[in-house]
Amino acid sequence: MKRSLALLGILGCALVIHGADDYTKYTSVGELGLTITNFGVIGHGYNIEDQPSCLYKQYSSLDFEQVEHFSYGGLWVGGKVDGEARVSTSVMDGTFGGEGWEWNNTTAVGDTVRIRSTFTDSEFFSSQAVSHQDFLISFTDTSRVVPSTGEEITNHNPLGLRVDLNSHAWNYSYADAFVILDLTITNISRELDPAGTGWTIDSLRAGYWIDEAVGNFNLTNYYAPGRGGWSWYDNLAGVVLTDEPSPAQGDSIWMAVGYDADGDNGYSESILGCRFLGGSGPHVTDPRTILPAATSWEWNTSGNPDWPLNTPASDAERFQALQERANLADASFPYGTENTGSWMMLAGAGSFGHLEPGESCNAVFAIACGSRDFLASPVGPDDPLSGLKNLQTRAQPLVANTTWARIAWDGEDKNRNGRLDGEEDLDADGVLDRYLLPNPPPGPALAVVAGEREMTLYWRNDPEHFVDPILGVADFEGYRIYSSLRTPGAGGTRTLVAQFDIENEIWPNTGLADIGVRHALDVDADSVEVDGRWYHYAFRLENLPSGRPEGNWVAVSSYDHGLPENNLPSLESDVKENWSFVFPGGLADLPGDGVDLKPGVYPNPYRGRASWDGSGPYERVLWFTHLPARCTVSIFTLAGDFVDSFEHDAATYQGEDVELIRNVLQQVNGASGADAPFVFSGGEHAWDLVSRHDQAIATGLYLFSVEDKATGKTEIGKFAVIK
Predict the structure, then answer these.
(1) Per residue in 337-349, pLDDT tens?
(2) Dihedral sign from CA coordinates of 61, 65, 71, 74
(3) pLDDT grade, residue 248 (50/70/90)?
(4) Closest Cα partner for 300 from 37, 715, 11, 6?
(5) Number of helices (H), then strands (E), in the chain
(6) Most C-beta atoms within 10 A of its C-beta, which of 398, 492, 666, 679?
(7) In whole angstroms, what is the distance from residue 329 CA to residue 321 CA?
(8) What is the band of 219 on the pLDDT scale with cuts at 50, 70, 90?
(9) Would you list the DSSP string of 680-702?
């Protein structure tokens, strides 16, 4: 309990100490939701409900797949000044708010996390963006006191560094399980030196400390009183040595890993890794000599001479830990044991050589997750390295994910020597380009029109002209139409509604003619206009369920035919590129259209709860349907007492006045900065059965009136509530 209280105190200290700290940003384009602050910390200590700390898979509709992996992580950078080891840490076990909280955001960039995106329709689009979601952050270790209070940071002897952190995340299916943390570390010691000359930093090392605590909030509610049975002490940590199936084939990667020991009955079968991808130093002639390292220890243990895995308790010990590469002959740990506990992970790298004042080095790490392979065949107990081999085998999905991260970072530098050689210059510009990945065709621009329990999807043909920048060919193959699960309990996270591809030598060869607007809409044209934009394809979904507060999401993806000769699978755009949340239902009653639609209510009678309701008093929904496009709806008791009223405008209505719909809006388009459209049929409006006095209404018969703003006409109806 003391430890839990201490962790809760971290965020509290951040709130008090750093007035401009930003801990609200998290990666949202892929399946890995990682909180990244502007003061060197990653994760939020499980202190912010409904925001991921390090959550994978964050968009799965399956409860057992949504696994949190660590409370806090943070950057450590070490070096020697005049022979003395110094390490600046953003967080470490046992100390919060002073020592171990030694990086502070810099006012030079406005004290915030800046966002960029390669998505052209994103509000954060930038031609300088590297990935689908970039965060740009700067912080320094130069303060010896807490900036806002003047309190001394105990045992902090600054190296004199500024760190510019650029994080990168993608939504590609093969690259949505990792986030890359690209660090530029600059010697700014002149700012601390009274003489203004600064000092040399020797043997610079860097790494990430992580307090792994793997578990599933859907299984144990961490936010409930008593923590809901959450355990910090049922985890294991280890080191994965190589990107090959067997550790005997090399020790090239030294990736720190952590996982829940027993998988929590299938709810925590996921594994976390932190891997050094590469870097450079101004005095390092070959970047391949900068070696990865990894180690582990139990939470806040120190001073036990009989226990080899003690918490590094001084700058000298932390400096050593940053380049720890344990002897393989001592294979009992950290390569996979049965000793569960609260394990810390440290993934380090070095040396980046020395930095003179004003010089910079580069260090790049990946935070990644993967579904742990529990089905891997165990190695015999007589093998002295059986623990290592078991971990190596079971971590292969994680290794595969971080391999894509390494491929992304390498870019054109295929032999990883830090320069362009031979035919590595793919675009012939003489510049070593990094962060290159095979790209699927982009998802098409999509418009959705909701109707009476139906919707029509319209999309453009732009993906068919996309040229993969790595492969240099236009390899578009087809489109897939997806929706939210149409059969409850069917498994999976979505429903494949239809698939269409060009006619070539690749299955299924349906052709694209059936979805062309000429055939799909029976029009004599190759494109149709929707809201001022022209679209080439159309597809209609009919007999849809109405009333769902979460809507029915739909999307159209594009996929290519891959490159089988290079073992590259078919790549597909992510559904979140163009998904829309659609609420099909009653159309608006429009004057002069020759159709007289009468306003109504469903379900009527409302019995206790509708099938779509939640459990809370504000999580109920009654739907008014076939409303005029602009109207006022008023609700009364049978005795004529006024209960509530609301304004309806079909052009702007988004359902935000009802908690269940508002929650979906916030989840999809909240702090992530996404902008998925919510599309309503125009004639429907949800009501939460709560009166204007903020009270749930009682059982009874109710009257309602609908005043049409266009005609002044008023319609009257009634509905019953039975509890």
Answers:
(1) 557 888 899 999 9
(2) negative
(3) low
(4) 6
(5) 6, 35
(6) 398
(7) 19
(8) confident
(9) E-BS-EEE-SB-TTS-BPPSEEE
pLDDT at 246 > cutoff 80 = no
Mean local confidence (pLDDT), 373-377: 53
User: pTM for this structure?
Assistant: 0.72
Asked if 16 and 150 count as a contact pair (C-beta separation under 8 A), the reply is no
Segment 183-206 mean pLDDT: 96
**What distances in angstroms separate CA 666 from CA 51, 574, 584, 609, 655, one per listed residue?**
11, 20, 20, 23, 12
Spatial contact of 95 and 89, defined as CB atoms under 8 Å apart: no
Q: Which residues are within 8 A (CB) of 224 and not within 5 positions of it... i.e. 6 or more apart?
A: none
- Please tell me the predicted confidence (pLDDT) of residue 153: 83
Confidence of residue 250 (pLDDT cuts 50, 70, 90): low
What are the residues facing 642 on neighbouring strands?
636
| Backbone dihedral angles phi then psi of residue 240, each to the nearest 5 degrees | -95, 125
CB 212 within 8 A of CB 235: yes
Say if residue 625's pLDDT is above 90.
yes
Half-sphere exposure of 45 (CA within 13 A, CB side): 20
Torsion sign (Cα): 23, 24, 30, 32: positive
CA distance 278 to 195: 35
Write down the domain spans for the chain: 2-410, 446-583, 600-722
Q: Which of 210-219, 390-399, 400-409 has the lowest mean pLDDT?
A: 390-399
List pLDDT tens digits, range 281-319. Answer: 999 999 999 999 998 888 887 766 655 677 888 899 999
Phi, psi of 481 (to 5 degrees): -105, 125
Q: Report the run of H or E that residue 619 belongs to, with start and end.
A: none
List Cβ<8 Å contacts ≥24 apart for 132-135.
132/29, 132/30, 132/169, 132/170, 132/171, 133/27, 133/28, 133/29, 133/168, 133/169, 133/170, 134/166, 134/167, 134/168, 134/169, 135/25, 135/27, 135/36, 135/165, 135/166, 135/167
The stretch 175-202 carries a mean pLDDT of 95
Please state whether the peptide bond connecting residue 357 to the residue before it is cis, i.e. omega within 30 degrees of 0: no
- Kindly give, in sequence order, each residue whose CB lies less than 8 Å from that of residue 669, ignoring residues fewer than 6 positions away: 675, 676
> How far is residue 610's CA from residue 474's CA, in Å, rounded to a whole number?
49
User: 211 vs 506, which has greater pLDDT?
Assistant: 211
Listing DSSP states for 58-110 in one string gives TT-SSGGG-EEEEEEEEEEEEEEETTEEEEEES-BTTB-SBTB---EE-GGGT
Helix (H) or strand (E) holding 144: none
What is the average pLDDT value for the chain, to the nearest integer? 85
Distance CA 24, CA 715 (A): 47
- Contact present, 554 and 544 (Cβ < 8 Å): no
Please name the CATH architecture into which domain 600-722 falls.
Answer: Sandwich (2.60)
Measured distance CA(424)–CA(411) in Å, rounded = 9
- Between 399 and 11, the higher pLDDT residue: 399
**Per-residue pLDDT, 540:** 96
CA distance 681 to 581: 11
HSE-CB of 37 using CA atoms within 13 angstroms: 27
Handedness of CA 43, 45, 51, 53 (dihedral sign): positive
Considering Cα of 61, then 67, then 71, then 77, what sign does the dihedral take? negative
Task: Give the Å distances, CA to CA, from 52 to 73, 228, 671, 690.
Answer: 13, 18, 11, 31
Q: Is the pLDDT assigned to residue 715 strictly greater than 80?
A: yes
Spacing of C-alpha 76 from chain mean position: 23
At 8, the amino acid letter reads L
Separation of alpha carbons 459 and 439, rounded Å: 20
Chain centroid, CA 526 distance in Å: 38
Residue 568, SS3? Answer: strand
Q: Write 430-434 long-range contacts (CB < 8 A, 24+).
A: 434/408, 434/409, 434/410
| Amino acid identity at 432 | L
Residue 626 pLDDT exceeds 60: yes
Give the residue-averaged pLDDT of 164-176.
93
